[in-house]
Amino acid sequence: MQVLLDENTLREGVDRLAQQIEERYRGKKLTLVGVLLGSVVFLADLMRRLTIPYGVAMISSRQMATEDNRPGHLVIHADSLMPEVKGRHVLIIDDIYDTGETLWELIPQFDEFNVSSVHSAVLLRKKGRQRVPVAPDFVGFEIPDVYVVGYGMDYRGYYRNLPYIASLSPEEMANFRENDR
Ligand SMILES: O=P(O)(O)OC[C@H]1O[C@H](OP(=O)(O)OP(=O)(O)O)[C@H](O)[C@@H]1O
């Protein structure tokens, strides 16, 4: 495991993002919408840096299976912690933009809530993996094409608690044994 972004660097990145978000949304009705589960640490830190008023919602999404069992569309769970967002400016908060498919699937679903606008902020954007024509509006850090864990992000349910972000090599992932944890 190799540390990619230490705690100080993350703090500076979140500060920078908070300033950009404040500039864009000052005087507007803003709702932050965190995408469970990976975004929770980033969202909690971002919330404490923002000084403008805002609402908060959390959504979880579910991958609908297709008839032939291929991965299907992501659909926002009906029981998501979503207050009224009609007429509000939604800012989707996610930990990482990798292929982009999560944002690609989720953004259009806000149309039915009659929001004023939908944009997105991610802590990390992985380079060279984008598969869709939608990019995040606010990005904390660009990272290389490596698998990362920590600061909310997991590998098989582990490492979300690390206060820094580290990369796992393909060998480390292949040799990962839950019984060693
Ligand atoms: O750009 P993409 O390729 O769509 O990848 C990004 C998504 O993947 C991760 O979620 P994951 O499905 O691993 O769930 P988790 O947040 O519960 O860990 C992450 O939190 C993003 O939501």
TrEMBL record:
Entry keyword annotation includes Cell cycle: no
Reactions catalysed, as given in the entry: GMP + diphosphate = guanine + 5-phospho-alpha-D-ribose 1-diphosphate; IMP + diphosphate = hypoxanthine + 5-phospho-alpha-D-ribose 1-diphosphate
BP-aspect Gene Ontology terms: GMP salvage; guanine salvage; hypoxanthine metabolic process; IMP salvage
EC class: transferase
EC number: 2.4.2.8
Keywords on record: Glycosyltransferase, Transferase
Gene3D superfamilies, per the entry: 3.40.50.2020
Listed GO MF terms: guanine phosphoribosyltransferase activity; hypoxanthine phosphoribosyltransferase activity; magnesium ion binding
A cellular component term, taken from the record's GO annotations: cytosol
SUPFAM superfamilies: PRTase-like
Occurrences of domain Phosphoribosyltransferase (ranges): 10-156
Pfam families referenced in this protein's UniProt entry, alphabetically: Pribosyltran
Protein known as: Hypoxanthine-guanine phosphoribosyltransferase
Phylogenetic placement of the source organism: Bacteria, Pseudomonadati, Planctomycetota, Planctomycetia, Pirellulales
